[in-house]
Amino acid sequence: MLETYSATERTEILRRYRNLIEVWHTRKGTSDRWMVRKAFRLAADAHKDMRRKTGEPYIYHPLDVATIAAGEIGLGRTSIICALLHDVVEDTEYKLSDIQGMFGEQVSRIIDGLTKIDDMVEGTDVESMQAENFRKVLLTLSYDVRVILIKLADRLHNMRTLDAMPAVKQWKIASETSYLFAPLAYRLGLYAIKSELEDLALKYTEPGVYQAIHRKLEQGREKRNKNVEEFLEPVNEALGKMGLKFKTLIAEKSASSIWQRMKEKEIPFEEVYDTYVVRFVVDCPVELEKVECWRVYATITGFYRPNNDRLRDWISLPKANGYESLHATVMSKTGKWIEVQIRTERMDEIAEKGYAAYWKYKGSEVSESGLDEWLTKVRELITTEDASALDFINNFKLNLFSDEIFVFTPKGEMISMPTGSTALDFAYNIHTELGNHCIGANVNHKLVQLDHPLKTGDQVEIITSRVQLPKEEWFDFVVTARAKSRLKEGIREYRKGFRDQGREKLDNYFKQLKLEPIKANISRIIEHEELSGLVDLYYYIATDKINFQRIKAVFKEKATGGIMRYLANPFSWSKATSAETDDSKSAVKLMPPLIKDQTSEFSYTVSRCCNPIPGDEVVALVFPNEPMHIHRINCPKAKNLMSQFGNNIVKAKWKQKEDIAFLAGLRIIGIDSVGFIQRFTEVVSSQLNLNIRSLQLESSKGVVEATVTIYVHNAQNLKDLIEKLKKVKEIKKVTRLDRIDDLKA
Fold first, then answer.
1. How many angstroms separate the CA atoms of 563 and 107, rounded?
2. More confident residue, 498 or 528
3. For residues 197-224, average pLDDT
4. What pTM, to 2 d.p., does this model score?
C-alpha cells in the first residue's frame, strides 16, 4: 500500500496515523480500530499518485483532517472514517457505491454530502458554484450534522496550509471562510476553531494588520502575565480557603476579534482593554454548577469592582449553540479593566468542542440547550426554502448566524429569536395564522406596531383581526427566515383566489392584441414584469396593477436580454438593465489603468463602497458584459462577492501615474480651539501640498468633528497625511473613510 511513497514519506504517514489514533478519545474497540485502519489504507492507496501544492503526498491532508475531527472536535469512528475518505470519491476512481459496499450506507451518505457538485451542474446556468456547494453542505443539517463538522475540519486544515496557494486562490478561500465557515463554527459552539478560521482569514486578506496585532500581543505578553498574577493572587487564596477545586488560565483574544473591536470603536490597539480574558474553570458536580460559579463571581467582586453593564449570564440562559459561561468585567488595582469568564469543566469542554461535547453530556442531568431548537429551525428553513442558492445562503447566514434575544409569551414561555426581530417576526414564530392576521402587539403591556423591534426580556402579546391579510410591504421589516417563508406562503395563498378573474382579463387582452394565449407569450410578460410566476401574474392583472397598456408595451418592445447586475447590497441580487442598477451609480471610472499580469489593460470601475486608491491592495471581479469591479481587498462587499463568485476573481494592481490625483476622505476629531482650521490646513496645503475638495466641520461642547475630502496621489501619500495630522496637538483621532459619495462637495 505504501510502496509508492519514499522511505521518509512512509515514516511521516505512519507518524501522522499514530497521532490520529492517539488523539481519538471516543470508544476504540477492536472493530473500531480495524475499520479506521481499513479506511486509512484505502485513502493512502487511492491518493498514492496525488501531491499537494507543497509537493507533499496528498494523504497528509485527509490524515490531518481526521486528526482535527477526532482531537479538536471530539468526533468518533464514523466521522474519522469519513474524514479519511472525504476526497476519495471526488478525486479518484472510487464511487459512492464502492464506499457503501466497504463501510456501509451511513459513511457513504456523509461522504456524498462532503463531495462537491461541480460535475453535476457542468454546462448549466448556475449563478454561483460556491453557493450551490454551500447549499449542498447546509442541506445535510437535515439528516447528519457530522457532514458540516468534518467540512469545518477540512476547511481548517486548508486554511492552515494556504501559504502554498496563489494569491487569488487565497483571497477566494479566505473570503468564503470568514463569510460562512467561521460563523458556522461559532453557531455549532466550536469557539477555538471559529477564532482560528477568522484569524487565518485575516492573515490572507489583511496581512499587515494581522502581523501588527500579533507583534503587539507578543510585546505586551510579559507585562500582561505579571499583571494577571497580581490580579489572581488574592482571589486564588480566597477560593482555596473555600475548598473549591478550580484552575485558572489566560485566554488571548484572536487578532481578528481585536481588529473588529478597533474598527468598531475607531481606537488604536493600545486602547483595546480586552485583548485577553482570565478564565476560571471549576470542577464540581452538575447539580452545583450554578451555585459554585456564582460563588467564584462573588469572591472576585469582593476584591475588584465590577462593571455591571458588562455582566453576561450565559448559565441561566445558554446560547443557542449550547455555550454556557458567566462573563464579567472588573477593575484591577492597576486601573485596567479585566474580563473574566467563570465556567465548569463540562461547560468548558462544550465551549471548546461544541456540538460533539454537547451530545456527550446530553444524557446527564443538565438543562436542555437551545442547540436542539436551533437545529429544528435550521431543518424547517431547509425544508421550506425554495429560493436560488445565493438567496438561500444569504437568508441562512442572516438569520441563523446572528446574535439572539430572549422574549416571552403572555404565559411566560421563553423564545429565542435573532437580534433585530420585530413583533411580526414573533407572531409568525408562534403560528402562521397568527402572523397572517396580526394588526399589532402589546409589548410589556404597551401597544406597538408590527415593525416594533424586540429586545431581550420583552413580553409579547399578539393582537389579531379576521379582516387582516398578509401584505407585501411586510417584507420590509420582517427579518427571520421563518417569517419571510410563512409570509410568502400566506400572500401566495391569498393571491390564488384571483386566478380565474386574472386569467379571464388576460385572455381578453390577448384578443385585443390579436395574440394567442400560449405559454411563450405568458412567459414573456412574467419575465418582463419580473414576477415569480402565474399566481402573481393573474393577481396583478385582476387588481389592475398590470393593465392593458403595460401588456401592450411588452409586445411592442424588442426583446432585449437584461444582463445580470449586482446591487450595492451584497445580499440582494436581481436582473436589470445596466442603466437601472444602483451599482452603476456606486462606481466611478478613473483614468489611470489597472493592469493584470502587468501586460493587458481592461475597462474597469472603482467601487465607492471602499474607494480604493493607488497603493491599496486591490482585487478585481469580472462579470459578463461589464467592466471589472475594483475593490480594496479588505472591503466587506468584496469579501462577500469573492466568497460567492470565486471564479470571477482577477488579480490586479495599479499602474502608477504620479500626475493624477485621487479623492480620499478623512474623519477628524479634536479639541476645539482658536486656529484649529489654520493648523489643519497648514499640514494639508503647506507641508504636503495637497488640495482640499470639501470640508464639513461641527463643534459642540469643546469637541470639533471634521469630515474632509482631499486629493492625494496614492495610499502612501494619504498615510503620510494621517501621521502628520496625528502630531497636531489639538487633533485626537484621524480615520480614513471608506465611503465618500455621501459627503457634500
1. 43
2. 498
3. 91
4. 0.71
Q: How confident is the model at residue 612 (pLDDT cuts 50, 70, 90)?
A: confident
Give the active site residue among 45, 90, 274, 682.
Answer: 90
Higher pLDDT, 649 or 441: 441
pLDDT tens across 452-462, in order? 999 988 999 99
| Rounded (5°) CA angle 723-724-730 | 105
Report the pLDDT value the prediction gives residue 584, as an integer from 0 to 100. 35
Alpha-carbon distance of 322 to 572, in angstroms, equals 32
Nearest residue to 88 (alpha-carbon basis) of 36, 120, 45: 45
Cα separation, 462 vs 437, in Å, equals 10
Return d(Cα 692, Cα 476) in angstroms, integer.
40
Q: Burial code of 460-495, b = ≥16 C-beta within 10 A, e = fewer?
A: bbbbbeeeeebeeebeebbbbbbbbbbbbebbeeeb
Residue 229 is a catalytic residue: no
Residue type, 21: I
CATH of 7-205, one of 3.40.50.2300, 1.10.357.10, 1.10.3210.10, 3.40.50.300: 1.10.3210.10
From CA 689, how far away is CA 169, in angstroms rounded?
40
For cell 448549466, the residue is 124
Which CATH number fits the domain 402-495, given the four candidates 3.40.50.80, 3.20.20.140, 2.60.120.560, 3.10.20.30?
3.10.20.30
For the chain, the structural domain boundaries read 7-205, 207-361, 402-495, 497-556, 564-654, 662-737
Per-residue pLDDT, averaged over 606-635, amounts to 81
Among 22, 49, 91, 472, the active-site one is 91
Distance CA 534, CA 532 (A): 7
Question: Could you tell me how many helices (H) and strands (E) the chain has, helices first?
Answer: 30, 25
Q: Is the pLDDT of residue 403 over 90?
A: no
Q: What is the CATH number of domain 662-737?
A: 3.30.70.260
Query: For the chain, what is the mean pLDDT?
Result: 81
Q: Are 83 and 69 in contact (CB under 8 A)?
A: yes
Q: At what angle do helices 146-160 and 77-85 cross, to 10 degrees?
A: 50
**194 vs 187: CA distance, rounded Å:** 9
User: What's the residue count for the chain?
Assistant: 745
Give the pairing of strands 604-607 and 628-632. Answer: parallel
Burial environment of residue 177 by CB neighbours within 10 A (0 to 12, 13 to 18, 19 or more): buried
- What does each C-alpha distance from 633 to 16, 167, 609, 644, 736 come to in angstroms? 36, 11, 12, 15, 15
Question: With contact defined as beta carbons under 8 Å apart, do 430 and 486 qualify?
Answer: no
Q: Which amino acid is at 729?
A: K
- Looking at domain 207-361, its CATH architecture is 2-Layer Sandwich (3.30)
3-state helix, strand, coil in the chain (%, to 5): 50, 20, 30
User: Stretch 349-367: mean pLDDT, rounded?
Assistant: 66
Number of neighbours of residue 294 by Cβ within 10 angstroms: 14
Inform me whether the pLDDT recorded for 233 exceeds 80: yes
Q: Which of 628, 625, 580, 624 is nearest to 606 (CA)?
A: 628
Question: What was the pLDDT predicted at 585?
Answer: 34
Strands 312-313 and 326-331 come out as antiparallel
Alpha carbons 663 and 613: distance in angstroms, whole number? 8
pLDDT band at 745 (very low <50, low <70, confident <90, very high): very low
- Amino acid in position 169: K
All three cell numbers of 274: 480586552
Q: For this structure, is 544 an active site residue? A: no
Of the listed ranges 179-183, 448-452, 558-562, 701-705, the one predicted with least confidence:
558-562
